[in-house]
Every structure is written in structure tokens, then in C-alpha cells.
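If you are new to this repository, start here. Below is one unmodified record pulled from the training split, so you can see the exact layout before writing a loader.
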Amino acid sequence: MRPSQRAQGFTYIGLLVAVALAGLGLAVTGEAWRTTAQREKERELLFVGDEFRKAIKQYYESTPGGMKQFPKSLEALLKDERYPTTRRYLRKIYRDPMTGKRDWGLVRGPGESIMGVYSLAPGTPIKRANFPTEYSSFERAESYTAWRFAFSEAGAAASSEATAPAPGLAQPAASPIPAASVLGKPFLAREPADK
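And here is the target side for that same chain:
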């Protein structure tokens, strides 16, 4: 083997090593970018979900008359038809940052009303800690569908009172919505009378 052929072989091996290292570097950079993008989407989901929860709360609390109501659709948050003048609780139906669509899972309440929303995105959240107090249940969430942004009227007073039930009263039934992800008490179904 001539020295020039031997030098070409080493150059070829050196080029292959350089290409492999560049590929590895790009893979690490791509993974870091994907993680950063997912964290940003999660931050946006927390903001948008909280906007929905606040809008549902405002809709409920501004119900005219004595019987409070939750909205029957998300569109009711854009224009409240219960008043002769325009009342808006949201400017628009936000896109789910995780899916890019305006489709949301709905937390249903009495009479098929809407008490909250959640993302329909598959996958496990990266964020696992340091949530606001009202969303502390998100720390144990195994999927984005467990991040429930809901308001329940029964607990608005209870969250500020934090008192035990009066003697002789039964404990309320458990809610299907994690208590920490609902501002206020969960919606309680009535017990059957023949119990």
C-alpha cells in the first residue's frame, strides 16, 4: 500500500468520525429544543386554562336573578345572551397550545353545563412541581387531560372559610374533579332520598 492511499484512508475515517459527532450534536440540540418548546407550551396551557376558569367564574357570578348558572357552551363566554347589552368574559376561544386546535375537553356540571376545560393532548407533562396553589393537584398528573381548569360555585365560600361541617351534617360526596384544581367546592350530586 502506498503512503498516499494510507493517507486517504485516514482522511476518510476522520471524515466519518466528524459526521458522527456532528449528528450526535444535532440530536442533543434537537432534544433540548423539543423540551424547551414543550415547556413553553405548558406555560401557555396554564395561562389559557386559567383564563377559561376565570371566565367561567365571572359568567357564573354575574348570573342575573337568584339561580346561578354555568355556561352551556364556550361560545357563551364570548357573548353573554342573558343580558340585553353585550357582556364578554373571553375575547376569543383560545387554541389549545398543546394540540394547536380549538377543541377542548369539557368538565361538565349540572344540566350539561360547563364548569371547566382540559387539554385533549396526549403525553406526559414535563412540569411536575411549583404550580399555583389552586392547581397543586397537577403535580401528580400523568397526562395533560388531568390538568382540569374548573370552577365550582359551592367552594367559593368554602375556600375562604375552611371550616368543618356542622355537627349532625354528613360529609359532602367526593368530586370527580380534583379539589385542588377547582376553585371552590366540587359540584355535589344530591343523595337519593330513600337511603
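Two things worth knowing about this chain: The first strand starts at residue 105 and ends at 108. The beta strands are 105-108, 114-118, 149-151, 182-183.
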